[in-house]
């Protein structure tokens, strides 16, 4: 029997696994990954920039199990729950979460040194510090004006854990918390992702349950993009056999109405000043990572490694795709689905103890869930 603790461990380890597997090929196109790697099937993958000079690598290193900000921010959110031991909202984004990412040092494996997570973050995640600390914004308005991306969805899985078995509560809390960071479809994806993790934490949960949860909560372009990608997956499964190349091509085509940048994910000087809808608020837009993750989970009937390998090999924001697959299927199967040698390598190269971190967080999550259950008993008494 897979216990609650096993599932919490599976979430944290699944996030790190997907992050480490996708990080060496992040921002490469599907065609580039095929040409240089064939397919990514292990965390022991050499980064395509490994031989670049220090300036071109931005002083970073990846490959062989090194994780990125996706994992570091997930662990930071777990620590916030350990500190607060209650449900969170945008005020916690602007308070304890800011402390975790901007003031408390941790080992940042890409940089090979202890520093604040803020030193590693991409600009849309640094926006948390700018808005809440420098601009002293109203926390619930913190995400306004930010680049709309998957930045909140990539680390939101702990919200699903503390609301295990209650996807609606997970969706609501993710929205309330992440509105301090994101807006529009970036915020919506965080809510849907948390709901999927909450559902996956339920004993006996199936892939169909997770997909129905995503469709049941997603709104606007996020729902349309998920529907489109799941339609592709349904069609491929009905064929009886399908090729990986066909799956990626059709998924990317299905996403174009909702995420039109395609492979054009880099920012260059010749783009400056040119108008675009990319990463801008829109009721018709969607991030790509969650719909793609759900499609590969569906195509592989919830098998973790095959779904993750296909997801991170499909190109673009590969580490975040891997993180979302890992969090959902880690919750569904528990840590037993992850190879022991991968767990050992992730801990070793990143100077982590994922099981200890997971267990500390699980203790806080249990307290929160038990208080929720006590509250339900009190409400039930009102009906007597």
Radius of gyration: 19 Å
Tally of alpha and pi helices: 16
- 3D shape: globular
Write out the CATH superfamily name: ADP-ribosylation/Crystallin J1
Biggest β-sheet strands, sense, barrel = 2 strands, antiparallel
Taking the alpha carbons of the first and last residues, their distance comes to: 36 Å
Mean pLDDT: 97
Class, according to the CATH hierarchy? Mainly Alpha
> Helical residue percent?
55-70%
Strand order of the largest sheet: 1-2
Under the CATH scheme, the architecture is: Orthogonal Bundle
Please report which band the strand proportion falls in: under 5%, 5-15%, 15-25%, 25-35%, 35-45% or over 45%.
under 5%
Pfam families: ADP_ribosyl_GH (PF03747)
Protein name: ADP-ribosylation/Crystallin J1
Organism: Thermobacillus xylanilyticus
Task: Describe this protein's structure.
This is ADP-ribosylation/Crystallin J1. With 384 residues, the chain is an all-alpha fold. It has one domain (4-263, 278-376): ADP-ribosylation/Crystallin J1 (ADP-ribosylglycohydrolase fold), CATH 1.10.4080.10. The protein contains 16 helices and 2 strands. Strands 1-2 form a two-stranded antiparallel ribbon. A hairpin with a 4-residue loop joins strand 1 (105-108) and strand 2 (113-116).
């Amino acid at each position: 029997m897979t216990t609650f603790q096993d599932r919490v461990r599976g979430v944290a380890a699944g996030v790190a696994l997907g992050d480490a597997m996708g990080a060496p090929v992040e921002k490469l196109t599907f065609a580039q990954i095929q040409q240089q790697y064939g397919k990514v099937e292990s965390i022991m993958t050499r980064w395509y920039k490994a031989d670049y000079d220090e300036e071109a690598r931005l002083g970073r290193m990846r490959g062989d199990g090194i994780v990125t900000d996706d994992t570091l921010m997930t662990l930071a959110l777990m620590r916030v729950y350990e500190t607060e031991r209650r449900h969170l909202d945008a005020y916690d984004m602007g308070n304890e979460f800011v402390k975790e990412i901007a003031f408390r040092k941790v080992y940042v494996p890409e940089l090979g040194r202890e520093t604040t997570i803020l030193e590693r973050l991409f600009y849309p995640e640094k926006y948390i510090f700018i808005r809440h600390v420098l601009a002293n914004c109203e926390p619930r308005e913190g995400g306004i004006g930010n680049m709309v991306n998957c930045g909140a969805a990539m680390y939101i899985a702990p919200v699903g854990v503390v609301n295990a078995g209650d996807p609606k509560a997970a969706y609501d809390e993710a929205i309330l918390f992440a509105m301090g960071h994101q807006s529009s479809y970036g915020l919506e994806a965080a809510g849907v992702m948390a709901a999927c993790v909450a559902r996956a934490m339920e004993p006996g949960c199936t892939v169909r349950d997770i997909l129905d949860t995503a469709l049941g909560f997603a709104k606007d372009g996020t729902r349309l993009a998920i529907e489109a990608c799941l339609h592709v997956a349904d069609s491929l499964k009905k064929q009886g056999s399908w090729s990986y190349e066909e799956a990626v091509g059709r998924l990317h085509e299905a996403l174009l109405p909702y995420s039109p940048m395609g492979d054009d994910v880099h920012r260059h000087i010749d783009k400056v000043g040119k108008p675009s809808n990319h990463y801008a608020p829109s009721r018709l837009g969607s991030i790509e990572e969650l719909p793609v993750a759900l499609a590969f989970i569906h195509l592989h009937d919830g098998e973790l490694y095959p779904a993750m390998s296909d997801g991170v090999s499909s190109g673009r924001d590969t580490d975040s795709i891997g993180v979302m697959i890992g969090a959902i299927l880690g919750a569904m199967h528990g840590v037993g689905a992850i190879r022991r040698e991968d767990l050992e390598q992730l801990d070793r190269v990143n100077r982590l103890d994922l099981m200890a971190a997971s267990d500390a967080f699980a203790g806080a999550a249990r307290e929160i869930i038990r208080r929720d259950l006590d509250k339900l008993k009190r409400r039930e008494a009102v009906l007597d």
